[in-house]
Amino acid sequence: MPADGAKGGVTFDAKTARSVERGYMTPEIAHQRARTRAALALEAGDHVLDVGCGPGLLVREMAEAVGAGGRVTGIDTSAAMLELAADRCAGLPQVRLADDDLRALSAADASFDAIACTQVLLFIEDVPAALAELARTLKPGGRIAVLETDWRGCILNTGDAALTRRLFDAWDEAAVSPNLPVVLSALLAETGFAEIGVEAVPIINRNFGADNFSTGFVRGLARKCTDWGVIDDDGARDWLADLERKDRDGAYFFSVSRFLFSAAKA
Length: 266
Ligand SMILES: C[S@@+](CC[C@H](N)C(=O)[O-])C[C@H]1O[C@@H](n2cnc3c(N)ncnc32)[C@H](O)[C@@H]1O
Fold this sequence. Notes:
Layout: H1 14-24, H2 27-40, E1 47-51, H3 57-66, E2 71-76, H4 79-88, E3 95-99, E4 112-118, H5 127-137, E5 138-149, E6 155-156, H6 161-174, H7 181-191, E7 193-205, H8 213-227, H9 233-248, E8 254-265
Parallel strand pairs: 1-2, 1-4, 2-3, 4-5
Antiparallel strand pairs: 5-8, 6-8, 7-8
Helix pairs in contact: 1-4, 1-8, 5-7, 8-9
The structure holds S-adenosylmethionine.
S-adenosylmethionine binds next to helix 1, helix 3 and strand 2.
């Protein structure tokens, strides 16, 4: 169990922000962003909100899609993330970045043509209230894209399945609202959204040590579980050494699915 308060055990400080940025620059997450942009069907001139924009990768891509006549507002509660986003979006006058909280957005009602909210709701206690806030700030007819991961369906070929299960369980416990994909359709409907659709965005990695999503994730998980007291340093080293061996033997396999929900404000 995470020692730093069990729930909400992830703090987006400068080190974590850089690690998230590295993981999100991999081709599999670039593909996820392309799917997210497609779901929003952005047009030149649109005003888009990226909630919990992190290092600003999606903000930059959406700014290019809406053009100089559009606007992309990226909000986040992490100063370190906002700094990375500002560097990434320098020179794009249509981008505005702000320290703002999804749970009480400072934007007026019906401000945005489209809203993206990717990998953020798992950190929020009251997800229905957060969705209501997104509905409030979206224009009638506007589109929303919400992406969350089914961490409980994460699979990894390891030599110690029981230990791996304990590490995954600790990760699950660190999320404030884990396993959101199973309830998001119903929650969007209860919030009053229409035209609700969902598609799976699988991440599959067959190499460890290469510059891919799972390598950063499992190394980060081993580090966090050491901090949380779930595993000691030797245990973490052995667990990672096993994955390195699997890679050398051509037996490394990781998969997790993300789910992309899209909907419109009636
Ligand atoms: C895993 S990162 C995802 C970043 C980005 N959405 C992406 O997919 O590339 C989660 C982000 O949500 C932000 N966040 C968490 N709680 C938030 C809140 N209540 N309001 C705004 N941002 C929040 C974090 O600071 C972090 O940057």
